[in-house]
Amino acid sequence: MKINKKTALLSIAFFILIGLTGCWSAHELSELAIATGLGIDKTEDGYRISVQFVNPGEIAAKKASSGVPISVHTAEGRSMLEAVRKLTTTAPRRVYLAHVRVIIFGEELAKEGLRKPLDFLSRDHEMRADFVIAIAKGLKAEDVIKVIAPMEKVSANKIFTSIETSEKNWAPTKIVLLDELIESLVSDGKEPVITGVYLTGNSELGGNIKNIQQVNTPTKIKSDYLAVFKGDKLIDWLDESESKGFNYITDNITSTVGFIECEGGGTLTIETIRSKTKLEGAIENEKPKIKIYVTAESNIGDVECPIDLSKSKTIKDIEKKFNEKTKDIIMSSVEKAKELGTDIYGFGEAINRSEPKKWEDLKKKWDEEFKNTEVVVKVDLKIRRVGTIAESFQEEEDQ
Amino acid sequence: MERISQYQLFVLTVFFQVGTTIIFGFGAAAGRDAWIVTIISLLVGIFVISIYLFLSYLNPGLTLVEWFPAQFGKWIGTPIAWLYPLLFLYEGGRILNDIKYLTTTIILVDTPFLAIILFFLLVVAYLQYCGIEVIARIGEIFFPYFLVMILGSVVLILVSDILRVDNLLPVLKNGWKPILASTFPLGASQGFAQSLELAMIWLLVSTSHKEIVKTTLFATVFSGLLILITVLMIITGIGEFFYKIESFPMFALVSKVNIGGIIKNLDAFAVLLFIISAFFKLSLHLFFAIRGFQILTKVESSRKLIIPITIISIYLGYSVSSNYEEHIKVAIEVFPYNLWIMLLWILPFALLIVTLIKRAIKNRKKEMAQAKE
């Protein structure tokens, strides 16, 4: 086949033309409404979705803003996708879901079951898997989504970062991503938990720009407590200490703070900087048994009682006391879960790992067996540093 | 006559064997024991590839489609030989379907299938005009990048601390049965026994047969290890449940990478890996098909066949399956049993037996002739 110069040039031009058209399904940034948060509530025969959009002009760094940084649109539909598509009737642009940071479910919906709405979230290609899931404690998700927060102009971002930082530094919350949630939903030996968010103060003002014009914002979004599920239904909440116990058991502690009471009154606060938990399942005398080993490194962070830290015996005593205290926290969390009859720690999975054959019989009656499971906790916390002052000056003042 | 070097044979073999497995996972039916399936499949694969290599030693100077007429005779051998290029063509169509479902599910959602199939085939058809030497050279160029990308994703996955070794436990919960079931015929055929197709180009390698054997077996072990690493990463990274239900498990794993909130959403990375390996696998399937048809029809130039084969491929790309579920169901339940067992296992073994018997008879005759003298 002989190709002359003209045809060659023409065909090259043709191919370049095709190459330059770009993406088939291109959407320009100026045509998209970027969603940052989704709130999902129940209606009588479907869902009510509230979407938080950023107002691009308002969050630009250089401009002093006067308007609201976010806007919220809601729509109802029989299915999630239908509701999302119906948003277009009120939203100014096409809804773009890839940058969603947080998805909040209303407590009412969570009590009824999350399995159905979760399917859309994992099936839709536009959704990434890096958003955090939370439950609006005692509220509608819509109410939380609507609130404007200070510092972080986009409040969905605020919820994400505050759950993240408190998980890392304070420990009673937990970042639950979609895949983890689905995995614990389908697992026989583990039940899901999800962090709760709620509002404090005057919730009327939350959606008003006035909310961030005051030094002490009237409405605050708080993330705290863990929602305990049985299957896909919310049944109860763990309080702060129980949530911390939960995080100790599931090896989800990065850093946290705990206190012990001194002999002569006052408290001594210890900062845990590293923690590692090993969970071992076994079956002894036909009964399931769980062994929890916690090893951690801690610092003494705050001494508010007369105590002589220069003696190594004192440090040993503190370690012993703190070990007992941590053990209590863990045990109280386990007791609560046993009371509710839901295995949120993955004890069943631990038994499955070590005794796969026996687990097959056990899993049919696991809800009952879980209550009778013997749990042994061993905590080994070591105090490594006492801070910049070795001895406390509290002693002298008190005497 | 076109020639390729020993290293190029290695590269093409690895690309061919790794193929699309790198995205779709391996032995997913066995759940968290899929890595055991990979190891057994590799061992069975080495065995069966050795047999193919032995067959090529027994039939010097002949390609795969010529073995059958040479041993079974013209009347039985030729129809059997015709099955092979048809199989290659069909497998090429399957790769096109892999591409079409992955791209339209993950990146180019609104793009019609035809646009994807057409543009992919345009490049592949051009490569067919250039011949195997060019395909091999492109492979040579891409191979280091391919490895660096796999290595890069391994490093990123390790650094982002998403692998949980606990996900591998308990080992062998359901015993050996599901493992053996997914090893044969699917596991051992996918990639490994499929390498029978490479018998079309073993003749073109410019070294001795012994070197070809060495290179091919080394490449098999190499790609087996690559697959093993990805399977282990996927299972420990996303867990058994998601390994079973995810359409594209490797993709799910890579999108979990998150390093300090800066390096994340590496989806495009996985798509790139997939496109490169799918591209080579498709080019090779079509090359072998065209080559096979050319030898069987005794057409002088293979170029005459390129356009018809490409048009048939477009049709196959469209019609092999009408949705993803059907595509996967056929890949796992229908295709290996109906085609692979016959064409990759039974026929080559029959060929081996016939060849050995014929050889023995020939030797006996020779000995007798010598004894007479």
Automatic annotation (TrEMBL), chain A:
Residues in Spore germination GerAC-like C-terminal domain copies: 226-387
Keyword terms, alphabetized: Germination, Lipoprotein, Membrane, Palmitate, Signal
Subcellular location: Membrane
Family annotation (InterPro entries): GerAC_N (IPR057336), Spore_GerAC-like (IPR008844), Spore_GerAC-like_C (IPR046953), Spore_GerAC_C_sf (IPR038501)
Principal subcellular localisation of the protein: membrane
Membrane topology field: Lipid-anchor
Domain of life of the source: Bacteria
Domain Spore germination protein N-terminal: 26-195
A Pfam family it matches: Spore_GerAC
Family statement drawn from the similarity comment of this UniProt entry: Belongs to the GerABKC lipoprotein family.
Name by which UniProt lists this protein: Spore germination protein KC
Source species of the chain: Cytobacillus eiseniae
Automatic annotation (TrEMBL), chain B:
Broad class of the protein's primary localization: membrane
Pfam families hit by this protein: Spore_permease
Subcellular location per the Swiss-Prot or TrEMBL entry: Membrane
Its membrane topology: Multi-pass membrane protein
TM region(s), chain numbering: 7-28, 34-55, 67-90, 102-129, 141-159, 179-205, 217-243, 268-293, 305-324, 339-357
UniProt keyword annotation of Transport present: yes
Alphabetical keyword list: Germination, Membrane, Transmembrane, Transmembrane helix, Transport
Family designation: Belongs to the amino acid-polyamine-organocation (APC) superfamily. Spore germination protein (SGP) (TC 2.A.3.9) family.
Full protein name: Spore germination protein KB
